[in-house]
Design brief:
The chain is of the alpha/beta class. It is built from 16 helices and 13 strands. 40% of the residues lie in helices and 13% in strands.
Length: 391
């Protein structure tokens, strides 16, 4: 029996993050499958290939492509050339053209299934093929459907106006594509609920892969008297709530990460908070191993950082909403702080940090829970769903 012919589609390769890591696992699941994206940056695609265990110059190893270099697996559109011509400063001005680029991808009737990695426009690829389309949804375009989320992300009146117009386009296109999808897979139960509420479709849940083998406890390192916030400093991750809670509780807080939002948290922080900026994996692992607990005050679609911390034996204090409901088990791997107003969430985190008892958690138990989110488990689950929905 011949191997299934699978094509992969992703939003864009302009920077490497969690959704790109998912595509790297897709590439391991279906070696040699072409990967289509309307906009690519060679630096990001090189990182993608490396994460998939490939060198750009070596053969891809896929069915019918044994002699093709792996770099040819990633296929873009004219939008990439427009992006390069702009100096790759920002992909945002090109996004209104993305739906058409997806709808005209050269997929046609060449594949047994098309697996789409979606968070804005990628499901438009369903109009480019007669093959079953399985959408792995990181989230429906949250900035399109959630006005409060859009307001936090917009950054001023001009940004608000642009994002409002783009949001209307995203909503319209997501709803147009929804009936053409053979199956929807959400990356968390929270995202499955959005798919149900916004698209009117049911969704399976397969949590994203986390490199748990890279993160592990070190019994020789003692935990220290500080809490940790780790991740990009962007509004929706709410570092401001972590800082306010630490001030109220009178505890030490270390913030690890950089981003466009760094100035605002730094301006409100007091002497209890230390900013370390963006850091390497080695520093991140060391902080996971030393902190009392990781703080997750923002509502994440899933949240890879908490699972990394748990793989190092660190408990997680997370607002009880979104992906934290999938990853944080109260009394086992951390605690849920009740969702509410900013003041209520700040009070909840302050109380949890002030009353925190390290003896209530066991590193080995936390680590065992984190292992259920391994890449191997992810690949097995997603391959089974695609196999059942292929033609």
């Amino acid at each position: 029996m011949s191997a299934p012919r699978i094509a992969l589609v992703h939003e864009r390769f302009t920077e490497y993050g969690g959704s790109e890591a998912v595509v790297a696992e897709f590439m391991k699941t279906w070696p040699g499958a072409p990967v289509f994206a309307p906009i690519t940056d060679p630096r990001c695609t090189r990182t993608l290939l490396e994460a998939a265990g490939l060198s750009p110059e070596t053969p891809s190893g896929g069915p019918g492509a044994m002699s093709s270099p792996a770099s040819e697996l990633v296929r873009d559109t004219w939008l990439s050339r427009a992006y390069a011509a702009s100096g790759r400063r920002s992909h945002a001005p090109l996004l209104p053209f993305a739906p058409r680029a997806f709808r005209t991808l050269p997929l046609e009737d060449a594949y047994d299934a098309v697996v789409v990695s979606h968070h804005a426009f990628a499901t438009q690829a369903a109009f480019a093929t007669t093959a079953p389309v399985i959408a792995y949804v990181h989230s429906p375009a949250r900035w399109a459907w959630d006005s409060a989320f859009r307001a936090r992300e917009a950054g001023g009146r001009a940004g608000q106006a642009a994002l409002t117009g783009l949001g209307a386009l995203a909503r319209r296109n997501e709803l147009r594509a929804a009936p053409r999808l053979a199956h929807v897979v959400a990356n968390s139960q929270a995202v499955a609920d959005r798919v149900r509420d916004w698209w009117g479709l049911p969704a399976s849940v397969v949590n994203p892969p986390v490199r748990v083998a890279r993160f592990a406890p070190d019994p020789s390192i003692e935990r220290e008297d500080f809490f940790l916030f780790a991740g990009r400093l962007v509004p929706y991750k709410r570092p401001d709530l972590a800082i306010a809670a630490a001030q109220r509780a009178g505890v030490r807080l270390v913030i690890l990460g950089g981003g466009r939002y760094r100035q605002q948290p730094e301006a409100m922080a007091g002497p209890e908070t230390t900013f370390l900026g963006a850091a390497s994996d080695d520093v991140l692992v060391d902080m996971y191993r030393r902190c009392r607990a990781l703080l997750m005050p923002g509502v994440e679609d899933f949240g890879i950082v908490p699972v990394e911390a748990m793989a190092c034996g660190a408990p997680v204090l997370a607002v009880g909403a979104g992906g934290a409901l999938d990853t944080v088990v109260p009394g086992i791997s951390g605690e849920h702080i009740p969702a509410g107003t900013d003041a209520e969430v700040t009070d909840g985190f302050a109380r949890a940090m002030r009353d925190f008892d390290p003896a209530a958690y066991h590193a080995d138990t936390i680590r065992k829970h984190a292992a259920t989110f391994s890449p191997e488990a992810f690949r097995t689950r997603i391959a089974d769903i695609v196999s059942r929905n292929s033609r």
